[in-house]
Design a protein that fits this description.
Layout lengths: L1 H8 L3 E6 L3 E6 L3 E7 L2 E4 L4 E5 L14 E4 L2 E2 L2 E2 L2 H15 L9 E6 L5 H13 L4 E6 H8 L10 E6 L4 E7 L2 E8 L3 H16 L1 E2 L2 H11 L10 E8 L5 E7 H7 L1 H16 L3 H10 L1 E4 L8 H9 L3 E3 L6 H11 L9 E4 L8
Parallel strand pairs: 1-9, 9-10, 11-17, 17-18
Antiparallel strand pairs: 1-2, 2-3, 4-5, 4-6, 7-8, 10-19, 11-12, 12-13, 14-15, 15-16
Length: 351
């Protein structure tokens, strides 16, 4: 026990929201210290990592052969084990205090819908990246804790966490997830929907970075009081030349109809599995939205209209999961039921 406390003092506790689009890192006693794109630029011939995170994102769609800028996470799970490990190693090294003697203890937030093989991949990536011990927590639980929901109470709360690759919908009570659904629809699906819409309607091809900007600048899920008009630049599919067009938020709202409808239907389906006592709690507490996708204009209004429940968007929704990992790390005894642990076999003191 004394030795464990000594190790804790001489190492960092790190919480990671390992997202498809963005990775956030929380360090005990320091808060969120890193928020960077989940992007790695790699030389395909030598497998050498050229850039990671903020440095690598501008490379997307602009790299000469044999360099490629890739997202090692897809739909909330690891798509490329080696590149994910390299990304984690880079981020951990970037935030870890050099005064610490022992490797860090790490808590990683994962989608509620991933299987045991995918969980093992996350653990192994973190261990190989230098962790002393790895804990996993489901993203909607971390988000609920991060936004201040009293998850320990015998009362029902609903969280809708919209990330880059997935949307997690969960009903939480007594520090556990009573029912949850995870769908592979999120911010990336919205970007793709915008790209496909402009390709069909205006014969213009845009990149994923441009699609993301269009979503942020003009995206909406509900009719706006004042519609927005923006300029979009891309490549004319007919002439093969650079082209600029003007689009409105009404057009982008139409483009987003399918991913938004998928999210709304998932919320409705989850509510349909809710027990009567929990349903009465939700009438009082409503729905809390977290994740970067929660910032889509009017999505809270649409959900409120479709469910008849009050809907609240969390403050700084994109950081909710990372904040939740930090709270859990600082109160591991309290949240022991919500995490799963794996120790590294490389370190003799954890055997």
């Amino acid at each position: 026990m004394i030795f464990d406390r000594l190790i804790s003092l001489l190492s960092d506790d790190i919480g990671i929201d390992l997202g498809t689009a963005t990775t956030l890192v929380f360090v005990r006693d320091r808060g969120i210290v890193l928020m960077e794109p989940s992007v790695v630029a790699v030389d395909a011939e030598t497998n050498k990592v050229m850039a990671v995170g903020e440095e690598a994102k501008p490379w997307i769609g602009r790299t000469p052969l044999p360099i490629r800028a890739v997202r090692p996470m897809m739909s909330g799970v690891i798509a490329d084990f080696e590149i994910t490990e390299a990304m984690l190693r880079h981020f951990i090294g970037k935030v870890q205090s050099r005064r610490k003697v022992f490797p860090p203890r790490i808590l990683v937030a994962v989608p509620s819908g991933i299987n045991e093989v995918e969980k093992r991949a996350v653990k192994e990536s973190a261990l190989r990246a230098g962790a002393r011990e790895v804990f996993l927590i489901q993203e909607p639980m971390a988000a609920a804790i991060g936004v201040g929901i009293p998850v320990q109470e015998p009362r029902g709360h609903m969280v809708v966490d919209i990330g880059g690759g997935t949307t997690e919908v969960a009903i939480i009570s007594l520090a556990g997830i009573v029912h949850s659904q995870s769908i592979k629809t999120g911010g990336d699906s919205m970007d793709e929907a915008i790209t496909n819409y402009l390709k069909r309607s205006s014969s213009i091809l845009i990149g994923e970075t441009t699609a993301e900007r269009v979503k942020i600048d003009a995206g909406s899920a509900y009719t706006l009081d004042e519609e927005i008009t923006i300029e979009v630049k891309g490549r004319d599919l007919m002439a093969g030349m650079p082209k600029a067009i003007t689009v409105t938020s009404a057009e982008i709202r139409q483009a987003l109809e399918t991913p938004v409808a998928n999210i709304v239907q998932t919320v409705r389906d989850t509510l349909g599995h809710c027990q009567p006592e929990l349903s009465s709690d939700l009438v009082e507490h409503g729905i809390v939205m977290a994740g970067g996708g929660a910032k889509l204009r009017g999505l809270d209004r649409l959900l409120a209209q479709e469910t008849g429940l009050p809907v609240t968007v969390a403050d700084s929704p994109e950081t909710a999961v990372a904040r939740g990992t930090g709270i859990v790390l600082q109160n591991m005894d309290t949240y022991a039921r919500t995490v799963r642990s794996t120790a590294s076999r490389k370190h003799w003191w954890r055997r």
